[in-house]
Each structure stands twice: as structure tokens, then as C-alpha cells.
Amino acid sequence: MLNLVLFGPPGAGKGTQADYLIKKFKLKHLSTGELLRDQIAAHTELGQEAKSYMDQGFLVPDSIVIEMIRSELQENKAVNGYVFDGFPRTVEQAIALDELMIINGTEVAAMLLLSVEKEELISRLLGRGKTSGRADDQGTAIIENRILEYDVKTRPIKDYYAAQNKFHRIRGMGTVEEIAQRLIETVSAL
Ligand code: AMP
């Protein structure tokens, strides 16, 4: 199995690039943000709880997202591998993912960090906010909050994967196709 963690701050282009990776390597896309938005749209209790954090740009509690991923892995066993998009976002989640991978007889092959400058992130997210309908893409205050959550809680995961020699930095600036090409080259060389 080929399991990839697509990593980077909000607005780095993880969702867009995940599409290229799943097509190229025939993988299953697992985005915790999308799964949470599905829960909100379905008006579930979990969705209601998650929404209160998401709308303010805060991370949803680890227990919620880990359980969601656990059940997705259970339901999608016959795959070539997964692209994890927006998960893990804390070191606790990274540890839980490793445990889940072991249970499933596999492991994370690589963590791919899309690195993008902060000004570019904010302008991309504000641009997306005009059409995405996402509450958390509206206004610089909430976007700054999401970037702060990333800096404090998510960025440290880099060291977790670096210690396992699984960390790869990919320049996330340029055209969508150029960035996709860099990612594909990195994964092909694994
Ligand atoms: P995303 O679509 O990845 O930008 O995620 C949107 C929002 O969903 C985030 O700002 C968080 O509030 C929440 N979220 C998504 N994935 C996670 C995660 N792995 N851990 C905690 N919160 C998450």
C-alpha cells in the first residue's frame, strides 16, 4: 500500500493536489475537513459539535477526527493506499494514525509538506471564500486564527515524520500543474 500524508497550512492547496495524487497513483482520498463538512450537512450530532470549532477556525478535538479516520479505514480496506489530506493535524493524531496503520498491516510512506508563504495563503483563502460558501474562509481574522492553529499545533508534526525519515518539503508556489509535477516526482522516487 502507498499511504501519503499531504500536509501544509490552510490554503496550501492540499485538496487540489490530492486530486492529482489519487488519479496518478490510484489512491483513496481521505480529507477530515470534507468528512466533517459532510457531517455538518447531514445535521448529525458530531457535525453540530465540530461546527462550533470549525466556524471559529479552531481544530476539532482529536478524539472526533481519529474516530472518523478509524471508521473510514475500516470501510475502505480494498484500496491501493490513501492520501490523507488535513490529517493528522496534531502529534496525537500522528501517533494514532501510525497505530491505525499498524492495525491495518501497513504504514505511512511519506509526509509531503506543501510550503507556501503566509501572504499568499491569506489571499488564496480570501479568494476561495468568495465561492466556497465556507464560514471559515470569510474574513482575515478567522483565517489568521486557522494559520495560528497550524503554527502552534500542526507544524510540530514535521519533526515527528522527520524523525522517521518520511518528511519531504515541496514548494507549493507556481501553477497547480507545476506543483503536482513536483509532488509526483517526489512520490515516484520513494
Ligand atoms: P480543512 O478542510 O482541512 O481546511 O479543515 C477545515 C476545518 O475542519 C479545520 O479548520 C478544523 O476546524 C477542522 N479539521 C479538519 N481536519 C481536522 C483535523 N485533522 N483535526 C482537527 N480539526 C480538523
Give an account of the 3D structure.
This protein is of the alpha/beta class. Helices cover 57% and strands 12% of the residues. The chain has a 5-stranded parallel β-sheet with strand order 2-3-1-4-5. α1 (14-25) crosses α9 (176-188) and α6 (118-132) crosses α7 (140-154). The longest helix is centred in the middle third of the chain and has 15 residues, at 118-132. The two termini are 13 Å apart. The structure holds adenosine monophosphate. Adenosine monophosphate is lined by residues 10, 32-33, 36, 53-54, 57-60, 65, 86-87, 89, 93, 136, 146. Adenosine monophosphate (AMP) binds at residues 10, 32-33, 36, 53-54, 57-60, 65, 86-87, 89, 93, 136, 146.
Descriptive terms for the model:
190 residues, alpha/beta, five-stranded parallel sheet, 57% helix, globular, binds adenosine monophosphate
Q: How are the secondary structure elements laid out?
A:
Layout lengths: L3 E4 L6 H12 L2 E4 H10 L3 H10 L7 H14 L6 E4 L5 H13 L6 E6 L2 H15 L7 H15 L2 H6 L4 E5 L4 H13 L2
Parallel strand pairs: 1-3, 1-4, 2-3, 4-5
The structure holds adenosine monophosphate.
Adenosine monophosphate binds next to helix 2 and helix 3.
Largest sheet: number of strands, sense, barrel closure: 5 strands, parallel
Ligands: adenosine monophosphate
Number of H- or I-type helical stretches: 9
Query: What is the tally of beta strands?
Result: 5
Structural category is alpha/beta
Rg (C-alpha, Å): 16 Å
How much helix is in the residues? Answer: 55-70%
What is the H/E order?
A: EHEHHHEHEHHHEH
Spatial order of strands in the largest sheet: 2-3-1-4-5
Distance between the termini: 13 Å
- Principal-axes geometry comes out as globular
**Portion in strands:** 5-15%
Low-confidence stretches: none
Can you give the mean pLDDT? 95
